[in-house]
Specification:
Blueprint: H1 14-38, E1 44-48, H2 58-72, E2 76-79, H3 85-95, E3 100-105, E4 119-123, H4 126-135, E5 137-142, H5 147-161, E6 170-173, H6 175-189, E7 204-206, H7 209-219, H8 229-236
Parallel strand pairs: 1-2, 1-5, 2-3, 3-4, 5-6, 6-7
Length: 238
Amino acid sequence: MNDHHKHAQPLISDSALTRESWKIFQIMAEFVEGFEKLASIKPSVSMFGSARFKTDHPCYLLGESIGRLLSDAGFSVVSGGGPGLMEAFNKGAYAGRSLSVGLNIQLPHEQIANEYQDISLFFRHFFSRKVMFVKYASAYVVLPGGFGTLDELAEILTLTQTGKSRRIPIILVGSDFWTGLIKWFSEKLIEERTIDPADLELFRVVDEPQQVVDAIFEYYKDRTIEMTAEERHRQLEL
């Protein structure tokens, strides 16, 4: 008679498990530093776009203009801190009257922090960095970009759709770039009932820098930019 009893084998060594456990403190440190440094930058706008666009790309100049207008309008500008459009946002904000903030990520192929940051934070973990983009933002501004940009857009749409985050303006810049995606939302996602028609009202599309600022002020015309007690409680559970 064959013995089919199986003996559980450790899937991870004790030393590796210890390293995993200690990572918790590294993650906690990232959150604590982020909370301490970013709590005072309100109101702020989180901005996203491609790291690959060079300084002569039309979107770079567009991003720099938007960053400057937002900064002069009294908004701290928060970007991913790297090159491309992240640099453009920070450069524009740095030249303005409000703070320019970079939430830099450490990557295997090292991301170089741009030089236009009044406040710089450095993260090892994407998930803790993503919380910081959302937690203190009064608006999201999204320019053309790749997977990282789409990831951040999907994140804020999901959080607002599900009520895990307070409703804020989500502004997509560049109708030529975003039209195909929005058409797919309308023709596929709504048709398949994976989203509701009302979900398309979570964001708006503009083309000009001043339209970004105007859209944010229009949104807060009849509501306070400061979080209510209920919204603050909700943000604690992001």
